[in-house]
Amino acid sequence: MRSLPKRINPLILPEVSPPYDELLSRRRLGKTNLSVKPGQIGTSSATKPENLGMFEYAHLKAPLPKDLKGSEIFSFQLPQQHPEAYFLMRRSKDGYVSATGMFKIAFPWAKHSDEKTEREYLKSRTETSEDEVAGNVWISPDLALEIAKDYGMFEWVRALLDPTEIVQNPASPEKHISPPPKFELPPIDSSAFAPPQPIARRTRRSVSPSKMASPKKSTAGRKPRQT
């Protein structure tokens, strides 16, 4: 049975999150060049030639707790090195969302085994991209909304997917960045704003977008999995 970490990031819960309109205003477009050393090209999904090069995306910065003691997915030598925020990302190519970023934001105290288990679950879903661009698992907007309910971050992901225009960064107005394709948001379900249901949550006590892993999803549909 699928399980999720018990401890959730309290800073993204509905009762303390910024108003929806403010979340929309915080969105930005970004562009980065994904590259690796010559000897690493083609050694993994993320380093395939087609998954390298210029990468465009929309992002929404979400806060992380100051004390991440016990975290394995945010493991730094000194507490002051812990990031204060992490990015929700949606790639411009096809509008897919980084499930990797969603998990790290929702469960910042997670163990590596937690992340691996959820990654395997997401990779089993047909709405998940087969390739991993920038090292991330990328999922369709519809699946992102479904997972966001499990993670207790529905409003954040909904804001990232909102079809309204994303304001260009005023610091670099001359830089053209392609936005993700428009996504028609489904009608709001009031249950999405309820606290996340315990999906057999475990009882453990427990950066930069360019450093995230991302898979490539073609718009031509997914190849059937071999069994």
Automatic annotation (TrEMBL):
Gene3D superfamilies: Transcription regulator HTH, APSES-type DNA-binding domain
InterPro entries associated with the record: Bqt4, HTH_APSES_sf, KilA/APSES_HTH, Tscrpt_reg_HTH_APSES-type
Region feature (Disordered): 170-227
Key words, A-Z: Conidiation, Sporulation
Signal in keyword set: no
Pfam families to which the protein is assigned, alphabetical: KilA-N
MF annotations from Gene Ontology: DNA binding
Entry-linked PANTHER family: BOUQUET FORMATION PROTEIN 4 (PTHR38044)
Name of the protein in its database record: Cell pattern formation-associated protein stuA
Organism: Blastomyces silverae
